[in-house]
Design a protein that fits this description.
Bound molecules: coproporphyrinogen III
Shape: globular
Radius of gyration: 19 Å
Helix content: 40-55%
CATH class: Alpha Beta
CATH architecture: Alpha-Beta Barrel
Number of domains: 1
Order of helices and strands: HHHHEHEEHHHEHHHEHEHEHEHHEH
Structural class: alpha/beta
Oligomer: single chain
Number of helices: 17
Strand order of the largest sheet: 1-4-5-6-7-8-9
């Protein structure tokens, strides 16, 4: 029997420098696709939608039918985990996530094992998608970074994270215990996703900005390293992409110490920084979603620049943050075509 072709994404994460980089976009499912909005109307609320394997698998597959992406990312949300740990989470239509009061830490600690159970529908979504997805396209599972999830749990919503940052220095013991809960529950959740069919795991640390170097190690790098070590202990060997968005110059220490095979770069990442990182890890990024939405000649020019500057090492073409909701489908097509040659 001939072995099936190894997905390009896995080859990049193994350190291979390919003729052309694999491409996928963060937040490629949902929001920007008209067929998503139609599907979404069939469910009462967003959380119920995420927990419905049939609907979530369909939302995962929608961008794969339209575009020649090299990877699918499971349709879910980083805030399903705090909900599974017992905190109230809901989405205000047109506004965004809202969370109830932070449960006391001992109560959260008691829910770690059960939280993975409560997320089993995400495993079912992955299993469904894996059956439908062509073998040369990779399937990505994900979770939020512990610090980012902690900021939502503390603040009760998105925002400037002022309260969470204050708490991290004023009551460090509470925040460290919260991070511990999230490290273990995230590792169990990601391990479950890998067993269900996720071949790559991404940690979305969307709020890694505005943190001093020592606290960055404490709140971002070390928790990621612990998740990755725990995955190995649980027998999971899927490569991990860590995305500390906004880390700036601290991303170098992160790439050295987190233990991730891939590191996501945000829109600010300098070309030379990316090349230095490529000596140690595969890099992913970093097209500006605003430019993707705008389209035109400047978009083409920037895509060329990114390909030129980073194609000499292991590289995964992606955005520097998620696809914006009002991005024209034609612009996504234009970039995917240029990168894949399809
Ligand atoms: O990549 C994908 O398309 C897969 C699905 C996915 C969603 N959320 C679906 C979603 C992924 C990977 C996420 C990650 C996520 N969720 C992050 C990290 C990445 C980032 O953008 O920084 C964060 C911070 C969240 C939390 C969250 N979920 C917010 C702030 C919001 C509201 C604003 C928004 O982004 O739309 C959500 C809701 C959400 N998550 C929607 C979708 C498709 C829109 C809700 C809807 O369709 O009703």
């Amino acid at each position: 029997m001939i072995a099936p072709p190894s997905p390009l994404l896995l080859r990049s994460l193994a350190g291979e420098c390919l003729k052309r980089p694999p491409i996928w976009f963060m937040r490629q499912a949902g929001r920007s696709l008209p067929e998503y909005h139609q599907l979404r109307r069939g469910a009462s609320d967003f959380i119920a939608f995420c927990h419905d394997p049939k609907m979530a698998a369909e939302a995962t597959m929608q961008p794969m039918r339209r575009f020649a992406f090299d990877a699918a990312i499971v349709f879910a949300d980083i805030l399903l985990l705090p909900r599974a740990l017992g905190q109230a989470v809901w989405f205000e239509p047109g506004e965004g996530p809202r969370l109830g009061p932070l449960p006391n830490i001992a109560a959260l600690e008691g829910q770690v094992a059960a939280s993975t159970q409560r997320l089993s529908s995400i495993g079912e979504t992955l299993a469904r998608v894996r059956v439908e997805l062509e073998p040369e396209r990779a399937l990505i599972g994900f979770a939020g970074g512990p610090w980012t999830v902690a900021t939502y749990m503390i603040e009760g919503r998105g925002g400037d994270r002022a309260r969470a940052r204050a708490m991290a220095v004023e009551t460090p013991d509470v925040v460290d215990r919260l991070i511990d809960v999230l490290v273990e529950s995230t590792a169990l959740y990601l391990a479950m996703q890998a067993r269900a069919g996720a071949q790559v795991l991404q940690i979305f640390e969307s709020w890694a900005e505005l943190i001093a170097e020592d606290d960055f190690f404490r709140l971002v790098t070390r928790p990621h390293a612990r998740i990755i070590a725990r995955l190995a202990e649980l027998g999971v060997d899927s490569p991990v992409i860590g995305f500390p968005r906004g880390a700036g110059a601290l991303v170098e220490g992160y790439a050295d110490q987190a233990g991730a095979q891939g590191v996501g770069l945000d829109v600010q990442a300098p070309a030379a920084l990316g090349r230095r990182l490529q000596e140690r890890v595969a890099i992913q990024g970093a097209l500006d979603p605003v430019l993707l939405r705008a389209g035109g000649g400047r978009l083409d020019a920037r895509v060329e620049t990114l390909l030129e500057q980073w194609s000499g090492g292991p590289y995964i073409f992606n955005l520097g943050h998620g696809v914006l909701p009002d991005t024209p489908v034609a612009h996504i097509e234009q970039v995917v075509r240029r990168v894949t040659g399809a």
